[in-house]
Structures are given as C-alpha cells and as structure tokens.
Design brief:
Immunoglobulin-like; 2 helices; alpha+beta; Cell adhesion molecule 4; 30 strands
Length: 412
C-alpha cells in the first residue's frame, strides 16, 4: 500500500501546479485566442469602431476633398497618410509641411482634408487609420484627370485650287485620351486618329484631307477636343483659316456709263487672286496711253476726253498661278449727242430671252387652234352618226365631177 501511494503522488500534485501557474499564463492564452479568432469575442471599446472612405476624382489644378467617416469614435488616435505613407495629419495636427493640404474638419463623425492645386504626383491611395485595440484603416483613392489644352492645328503644305489640303490637330497632354473631332461649314469631317502614352498622360493627334477650290479661301475648319476632365458640354476648340492659292481674275469698272468730250473718266481694275498680284499694267490696244492718262495701281484716270481717246483699254495682272486681263471699250460722244447708257447685261442675252418668249407664245397659240379644230370635227361626226341611228336621214349623195367641188348634202 505504501508503494502504491508513492506512485500516485506526482499525479496528485498536477491540479495544484495548474492552479499555481494559471494566473500568469491566462492573459497570454487569451491574447493568443483572440489573435487566432478575432471575431469570437466582441469588445466594447475597439471592435465596434471603424472608418469609411470614398474615392475622389479631380481635374489637374483643381481642389479635392478627402473624407474619413468615423463610427462610434471614442477619441482614439486618427492618422492620415499620403500614397508615399508620409503622415499628413496626426490626430488633427499637421505632420507634413505641404500647405496645399489643409485640415477642414476633425470631429467625432468625420475627418476631412482639402487638397488644392492637385497634381498628377498626388494621385494614389490615401490611408485613414484609426488606432484602437485593433487598428482600423481604409484607403481613399485619388484620381487626377488632365483636361486638354487648345488643340494645335497646322497645314502640312500650301493648298492650291483644285488640289487637296491636309490638316493635323494635336493635343499633347490629356487624361483620359482626348476625343478629337473636325468640323467644316457646320459639318463633321472624318479624320484619322492616333495616340501615344507618355507616362500618366496621353498625346492625341488627328489628320484630315479634303479637296479645295478658290471659294474655300478664307474658310474656317475647326478642331475640337473633349474628355472627362472638362465640364459636361464644354470643349477646347481651335479654328484654322484656309489659305487656298489660285490664279487671278480681273474686271474693269468705269466711273460713268456715258462719256462725252471734256469729261474725266476713271477706270478701276478689280483684281482677285491668291497671292494677290503685286502689279497691274494698263494699255490701249496697239497704241500707247494718252499723254494725259494717269495710271496708279488699280486706277487709270483719263481727264479732258476727246474722240482721239477712243479705243480698247486693257488691265493685266498675274501671279505664279496664272495671268488675267480685262477689256473696256471707250467711246467718247459729242456733248449734244443723245445716247443710251450702257447696261451691264449684254444685248445678245436680252435678245435671246425675247426670242424665247415669242417662240413660247406662238407654240401656245398653235396648240390652242389645233385643239379647237379637233373638238369641232369630233362634234360634227357625232351629230351625223346620231342622225343615221334615228332614221331621220333620208338620202345622202355626192354631186360633182371633174373640175367640180365635192359636196355633201343631207336631206331630211
């Protein structure tokens, strides 16, 4: 019996050892259990608290507000950090010397900071950390957009009448990539687009080609750029003025329609062309200009006219695309002569119009006569056939022979 009691003695001491070591090991065991099963026990101070953030989008150079919403805040430490994990504010106190960041609000419900003059380098995740028994943190992602500047529009080569013009439109910086559109005379043109990524921004280009004529000189072509960084309905535009070169044209205008002896006549040579002709030459048929004539640029002045000044006067101008000339026939009348003023409409055109009107009137009259005769013959035919049917025509015969007229008689 004594030997059996001696063998059971160590087992009797185990409960006393556990009771002796339990108080020092209990906190360690509890902490290990909470670390492995954080949701097994609800704490009154830490687990009920939390933070909430929202993502923010801002245009480059704009103002962004980053907000951390606190739930059941008990005065614990709140820390805000930038994407580089540099502390901006520690429990409401500035920690980073960047004056663009300002603390707008620090209350038990929210912490809000304000970022001015946002840059691409500011983009990323901003950490909002709440230090309690359990550390809570959320990330607010800041996205910085880049609005396009006014597009740069250039022509690849000089436009010439009858040829094609090629224009390019470039926006060097935008994010997201800008959408480019072409407009000409309020109609959209289809261009060929390309884009290239340069770091965080995009370079966008568009090219358009179309045919041009002299009437297109001075026309407006617009390149428009849009992206999400601009307010809704807004865009950046650049207008390009077309420069179309073409051969010149000339026309002479006289200061008066009827010229008499002793009058002063001023002839003006109206010249158009691109490039504009730099020199205008005056001449009179195969003769030289009168000694009294004064030719200055576009005008030719003929004072004290006489019949000796009669003739065909010519103005000529040219550029690298061609030559142009205009004629004016001068006829000087006696002071007492009765003449009609020359009209700008040629007599041949007036005569042609009158002849056409007369022809149309004759055609209408001939048509009316033909219709009238046809209707009358139809009436007589129907009348005779009606008499035959009713039996009222007793006899119908033809009298006559050679050299006599044919006659038709109806006896009733």
């Amino acid at each position: 019996k004594r030997s059996a009691r001696r063998e059971d003695a160590p087992w009797v001491l185990v409960p006393f050892l556990v009771l002796a070591l339990a108080p020092p090991l209990l906190p360690l065991l509890l902490a290990l259990f909470l670390w492995q099963c954080p949701g097994a026990v609800n704490t009154t101070s830490g687990s009920a608290q939390g933070v909430q953030t929202e993502n923010v989008t801002v245009a480059e150079g704009g103002v962004a507000e980053i907000t951390c919403r606190l739930h059941q805040y008990d005065g614990s430490i709140v820390v805000l950090q930038n994407p580089a994990r540099q502390t901006l504010f520690f429990n409401g106190t500035r920690a980073l010397k960047d004056e663009r960041f300002q603390l707008e609000e620090f209350s038990p419900r929210r912490v809000r900071i304000r970022l001015s003059d946002a840059r691409l380098d500011d983009e990323g995740g901003y950490f909002c950390q709440l230090y309690t028994e359990d550390t809570h943190h959320q990330i607010a992602t800041l996205t910085v957009l880049v609005a396009p500047e006014n597009p740069i529009v250039e022509g690849r080569e000089q436009a010439v009448e009858g040829g094609e013009v090629e224009l390019s439109c470039v926006v060097p910086r935008s994010r997201p990539p800008a959408v480019l559109r072409w407009y000409r005379d309020k109609k959209e043109l289809r261009g060929v687009d390309s884009r290239q990524e340069n770091g965080k921004v995009w370079s966008v280009a568009s090219t358009v080609r179309f045919q041009v004529d002299r009437k297109d000189d001075g026309g407006i072509v617009t390149c428009e750029a849009q992206n999400a960084a601009l307010p809704p309905g807004h865009s950046k535009q650049t207008q390009y003025v077309l420069d179309v070169q073409y051969s010149p044209s000339a026309r002479i205008h006289a200061s008066q329609a009827v010229v008499r002896e002793g009058d002063t006549l001023v002839l003006t040579c109206a010249v158009t062309g691109n490039p504009r002709p730099g020199q205008i030459r005056w001449s009179r048929g195969n003769e030289s200009l009168p000694e009294r004539a004064e030719a200055v640029g576009e005008t030719l002045t003929l004072p004290g006219l006489t019949s000796l000044d009669n003739g065909t006067y010519t103005c000529e101008a040219g550029n690298k695309h061609g030559q142009a000339r205009a004629l004016y026939v001068l006829v000087v009348y006696d002071p007492g002569a009765v003449v009609e003023a020359q009209t700008s409409v040629p007599y041949a055109i007036v005569g042609g119009i009158l002849a056409l009107l007369v022809f149309l009137i004759i055609c209408v009259l001939v048509g009316m006569v033909w219709c009238s005769v046809r209707q009358k013959g139809s009436y007589l035919t129907h009348e005779a056939s009606g008499l035959d049917e009713q039996g009222e025509a007793r006899e119908a015969f033809l009298n006559g022979g050679d050299g006599h007229k044919r006659k038709e008689e109806f006896f009733i």
